[in-house]
Amino acid sequence: MRTVEAAKAPGHCGLAEAVARYLFKLMAYKDEYEVARLYSETSFLDRVKSTFEPGKLRFEFHLAPPLLARRNPETGEPKKMSFGPWMLKAFALLAKLKILRGTGFDPFGYTAERQMERRLIFDYERLLGDILDHLTPNNHAAAVALAMIPEKIRGFGPVKQRHLAAAKAEEAALREQFRAGAPTLLRAAE
Questions:
Q1: How does pLDDT run across 53-67, given as a tens digit for each residue?
Q2: Count of domains observed in the chain
Q3: Which of 156, 162, 163, 170 is most buried (most C-beta within 10 Å)?
């Protein structure tokens, strides 16, 4: 990307950095295995325990497990469930099962959210191919804004879906500006 940026839009910069940052963001999504690893790390437990008086700490986790959570009939969103301190042991076990990630044995890999996250990476790579093929000094700003679109996709579950819908609408507008070679009016980082 840096080579193409220098050749096709001399004197402009920012595209290669945006691509590196946001392709990484899309590829490093937090899945159930990663969340479990973060909770089961001893440094997490040590930090929490040092914050509270001994004997006063009780863990309770509010989760909407993709394979267990019921849906709210009004909103369609998964309802959170409460889990006690035994979840720390479940998290430790789940963290060890990360070797299943991306295999046919990964039970979470079949969820709509995981499929969407993999599709986002594929779509972004296609977008980058389009940018590489059609980059000019005139559409460089639009290209950088397009490369930064993943910044808008935040959260988990339904929150992520809402942000994705807004990001895709902004991406469509930026693509039009990119194709027209017009200076960008929208900014993906805002």
A1: 887 788 899 988 877
A2: 2
A3: 170
